[in-house]
Amino acid sequence: QVHLVESGGGLVQAGGSLRLACAASGQTFSSYAKGWFRQAPGKEREFVAAISWSGGNRNYRDSVKGRFTISRDNAKNTVYLQMNSLKPEDTAVYYCAAGGEDVITTAQRYDYWGQGTQVTVSS
Q1: pLDDT tens column, 64-73
Q2: I need a surface site. Which of 8, 23, 44, 93 has the fewest CB within 10 A?
Q3: Tens-digit pLDDT profile for residues 7-58
Q4: Where are the beta strands (DSSP E) in 1-123?
Q5: Residue 57 and residue 9: Cα distance in Å, rounded?
Q6: Radius of gyration (Cα) for the chain, nearest Å?
Q7: From CA 123, how far away is CA 90, in angstroms rounded?
Q8: 3-state secondary structure of 114
Q9: Which residue blocks in the chain are alpha helix, DSSP H?
Protein backbone atom coordinates (compact mmCIF):
# COMPACT_ATOMS: atom_id res chain seq x y z
CA GLN A 1 0.00 0.00 0.00
CA VAL A 2 1.23 3.50 -0.89
CA HIS A 3 -0.17 6.67 0.67
CA LEU A 4 0.47 9.94 -1.20
CA VAL A 5 0.23 13.49 0.15
CA GLU A 6 0.68 16.55 -2.08
CA SER A 7 1.83 19.97 -0.92
CA GLY A 8 3.09 23.24 -2.35
CA GLY A 9 -0.01 24.54 -4.05
CA GLY A 10 -1.22 28.09 -3.67
CA LEU A 11 -2.04 31.37 -5.38
CA VAL A 12 0.51 32.88 -7.73
CA GLN A 13 0.50 35.58 -10.38
CA ALA A 14 0.92 34.72 -14.04
CA GLY A 15 4.59 34.25 -14.84
CA GLY A 16 5.37 33.04 -11.36
CA SER A 17 6.56 29.66 -10.11
CA LEU A 18 5.47 26.97 -7.71
CA ARG A 19 7.03 23.69 -6.67
CA LEU A 20 4.68 20.86 -5.83
CA ALA A 21 5.83 17.93 -3.74
CA CYS A 22 4.27 14.52 -3.27
CA ALA A 23 5.45 12.59 -0.24
CA ALA A 24 4.78 8.89 -0.11
CA SER A 25 4.67 6.26 2.57
CA GLY A 26 5.19 2.63 1.77
CA GLN A 27 8.24 0.53 1.27
CA THR A 28 7.74 0.06 -2.46
CA PHE A 29 7.59 3.77 -3.39
CA SER A 30 10.87 3.73 -5.30
CA SER A 31 9.72 0.89 -7.55
CA TYR A 32 6.73 2.78 -8.93
CA ALA A 33 6.47 5.23 -11.77
CA LYS A 34 4.97 8.57 -10.73
CA GLY A 35 2.71 11.02 -12.43
CA TRP A 36 1.07 14.40 -12.01
CA PHE A 37 -2.44 15.10 -13.24
CA ARG A 38 -4.69 18.11 -12.90
CA GLN A 39 -8.38 18.84 -12.97
CA ALA A 40 -9.95 22.22 -13.51
CA PRO A 41 -13.60 22.95 -12.57
CA GLY A 42 -15.97 21.43 -15.08
CA LYS A 43 -13.19 19.61 -16.92
CA GLU A 44 -11.86 16.09 -16.98
CA ARG A 45 -8.67 15.11 -15.20
CA GLU A 46 -5.73 15.47 -17.55
CA PHE A 47 -2.18 14.21 -17.68
CA VAL A 48 0.56 16.71 -16.86
CA ALA A 49 3.86 14.85 -16.40
CA ALA A 50 5.22 11.41 -15.59
CA ILE A 51 8.54 9.90 -14.57
CA SER A 52 9.72 6.30 -14.59
CA TRP A 53 10.70 4.45 -11.43
CA SER A 54 14.40 5.14 -12.09
CA GLY A 55 13.90 8.72 -13.18
CA GLY A 56 15.45 7.96 -16.54
CA ASN A 57 12.31 8.52 -18.61
CA ARG A 58 9.97 11.50 -18.44
CA ASN A 59 6.96 12.64 -20.39
CA TYR A 60 4.99 15.91 -20.43
CA ARG A 61 1.80 17.20 -21.98
CA ASP A 62 2.60 19.58 -24.79
CA SER A 63 1.24 22.69 -23.08
CA VAL A 64 3.69 22.43 -20.16
CA LYS A 65 6.83 21.38 -22.01
CA GLY A 66 9.67 23.78 -21.30
CA ARG A 67 7.84 25.22 -18.28
CA PHE A 68 7.31 22.24 -15.94
CA THR A 69 9.87 19.72 -14.70
CA ILE A 70 9.11 16.46 -12.92
CA SER A 71 11.75 14.90 -10.70
CA ARG A 72 11.97 12.37 -7.91
CA ASP A 73 14.10 11.64 -4.87
CA ASN A 74 13.64 8.00 -3.96
CA ALA A 75 15.71 8.41 -0.80
CA LYS A 76 13.12 10.92 0.42
CA ASN A 77 10.13 9.06 -1.05
CA THR A 78 9.13 12.25 -2.82
CA VAL A 79 8.29 13.33 -6.34
CA TYR A 80 8.31 16.99 -7.37
CA LEU A 81 6.75 19.16 -10.04
CA GLN A 82 8.57 22.44 -10.63
CA MET A 83 6.22 24.80 -12.43
CA ASN A 84 7.62 27.96 -14.00
CA SER A 85 6.08 30.65 -16.20
CA LEU A 86 2.66 29.77 -14.87
CA LYS A 87 -0.41 30.78 -16.85
CA PRO A 88 -4.03 31.25 -15.76
CA GLU A 89 -4.93 28.12 -17.73
CA ASP A 90 -2.70 26.10 -15.39
CA THR A 91 -5.23 26.73 -12.61
CA ALA A 92 -6.48 23.37 -11.32
CA VAL A 93 -6.28 20.84 -8.53
CA TYR A 94 -3.07 18.91 -9.03
CA TYR A 95 -2.87 15.24 -8.11
CA CYS A 96 0.08 12.91 -7.89
CA ALA A 97 -0.21 9.23 -8.69
CA ALA A 98 1.90 6.09 -8.41
CA GLY A 99 1.85 2.83 -10.35
CA GLY A 100 3.71 0.67 -12.84
CA GLU A 101 7.38 1.13 -13.68
CA ASP A 102 7.74 3.20 -16.84
CA VAL A 103 6.12 6.50 -17.71
CA ILE A 104 2.32 6.31 -17.75
CA THR A 105 0.12 9.00 -19.25
CA THR A 106 -3.26 7.34 -18.65
CA ALA A 107 -4.93 7.96 -15.30
CA GLN A 108 -6.64 4.55 -15.22
CA ARG A 109 -3.29 2.77 -15.16
CA TYR A 110 -2.21 4.33 -11.87
CA ASP A 111 -2.89 2.42 -8.66
CA TYR A 112 -2.52 5.11 -5.99
CA TRP A 113 -3.60 8.75 -5.80
CA GLY A 114 -3.11 11.69 -3.48
CA GLN A 115 -5.87 14.00 -2.31
CA GLY A 116 -4.76 16.90 -4.51
CA THR A 117 -3.46 20.43 -3.99
CA GLN A 118 -5.00 23.59 -5.43
CA VAL A 119 -2.97 25.76 -7.81
CA THR A 120 -4.48 29.11 -8.75
CA VAL A 121 -2.78 31.42 -11.24
CA SER A 122 -4.11 34.97 -11.42
CA SER A 123 -3.83 37.11 -14.53
Answers
A1: 999 999 999 9
A2: 44
A3: 999 999 999 999 999 999 876 667 789 999 999 999 999 999 999 988 899 9
A4: 3-7, 10-13, 18-25, 33-39, 46-51, 58-60, 68-73, 78-83, 92-99, 112-113, 117-122
A5: 25
A6: 13
A7: 11
A8: coil
A9: none
